[in-house]
Design a protein that fits this description.
alpha+beta; 8-stranded mixed β-sheet; single chain; 7-stranded antiparallel β-sheet
Amino acid sequence: MTASNETNQSVVTRRRFAGLAAFTSAAALGLSRVGDAVAAERSFVPAVVVGTGYGAAVTALRLGEAGVATTMLEMGQPWNQPGADGKVFCSTLAPDRRSMWFHRRTAAPLDTFLWLDVVNRDLGTPYAGVLDRIDFPAMDVYVGRGVGGGSLVNGGMAPTPRRSYFEQVLPRVDADQMYRRWFPLANRMLGVNSIDPRYLETTPAYRYARVSRRHAHQAGFRTAVIPNVYDFGYLEQEERRQVPRSALAGEVIYGNNHGKQSLDKTYLADAVGTGRVTIRTLTRVVSVRADRRGYVLGLEQIDASGKVVRRSELGCRQLFLGAGSIGTTELLLRARETGTLPDLPDAIGEGWGTNGNVMTARANHAWDPTGSLQSTIPAVAIDNWDDPVHPAFAEIAPLPTGLETWAGLYLAITANPERGRLSYDHATDRAILHWQASQSTPSIQAAKALFDRINRATGTTYRRDLFSGNRAFAADFCYHPLGGCVLGRATDDYGRVRGHRNLYVTDSALLPGSIGVNPFVTITALAERNIARVIATDLTR
Ligand code: FAE
């Protein structure tokens, strides 16, 4: 290591410590902001970033590094303050009010077990929990709510997309540069790591993955080990009971108490650590309008019970939208349709897709148990993306009930060409998604082609007891909403909203409905690429 590398390294480490300390003290003091108190009270700031998910976190860090005072606005809570049970998050098996964002009942995607309504629980009074499900007529969209966005609730799977598919999806983005520079940077920053192959082959916690992998091989499919942002070293320690359990204690979609490098531990800690970035929490952006200096946002601050405690406005010169595919698109549609930014492009709301998401489960033979201890963090996938008719990339998912279930569960990503559209509904003041149930059929067909072949090769069948209505496939929900403000259409090739100076989209809304693998590494890498260009060319200092 050279002397200057060492200096850079120590600056980065110090910055992260400072950021993590700011998170801790904000939690200890019960503050509704992380970072500088004075900055959080200003009515005008140079840059605002809406949301704290992947695109937002990257953008805020790089703005902070460039010396731009930046305020992040997040409608969810900071998730680092333990509740009465000493834990920040509740587990998937014993969910409480922390689980869901103002729902009266949990809304887990597997809604029955042995056809019984035993999975979901009543929650009592609605609360600002960490997982939201936005329900549209034929599609339910899961999203994370809180400082860290989807990183708080997701499975941490961190694959880089196949280059040929990336080039097909985003032909105007320089793939050479992405694969040489931005994907490696995103992987490094996110803390992506891989499971030790010896551990994968021997631990009871991944028996389910080995069983499903063997079945896939029997049917002639290829499988791949998938990197993750969960610390696999920590996971091994969990198994030896040297540290508190998280992945081995059924924690994931309602948050992981340990092990996961969510954004509040990486990008956001670094961003706050620059001393230039402040996060205002439980603060929802409800409107955007233009003024002489840039943009003015209407804000609603709520308490954890949902009561609006303050309404205010915040002005900025540069506005970066990172509220997620649905959130960002909704803000721009509302602005266009209520006339506060009437000239926004027609392409806003278009090009929305589910990343071809479809979930299914197989029933294994009695001699093929999958184990009562299952890591919630997936590590293996069936890679059938080369199939000329039905490309599919199927994550082998756990079913961590604490009991033997003999189930093989999968979340498949397929190349479903169908696209939906979001529009603004004046009556409810919300975005509505135009997606027909029939548009999910290509996802089901692709998954069926894959799993029919596995069932034939192994003499097994589908489980029909896990999704209500006796269904073998569930393609009426998605974890990977993508699109709505597509790169090169609603924006230019770097996320600048067409026709609007200093207005940018930074997140999953940029991806045109499909990326072929779990998307957050791509969202992160694209955000890195875009903000580097914007800082180099658009910022006036
Ligand atoms: P996102 O992470 O959704 O963050 C948006 C943030 O903006 C949220 O914190 C919102 O609360 C906030 N927000 C929204 N509207 C407003 C507003 N009006 N005012 C203020 N704040 C607002 O954005 N992806 C993978 O790559 N690997 C996985 O293993 C994986 N598993 C998943 C499992 C689950 C259960 C879920 C739900 C998702 C999973 N994903 C996974 C998807 C991934 O988390 C998602 O693509 C990214 O989080 C999207 O990142 P964005 O930057 O677009």
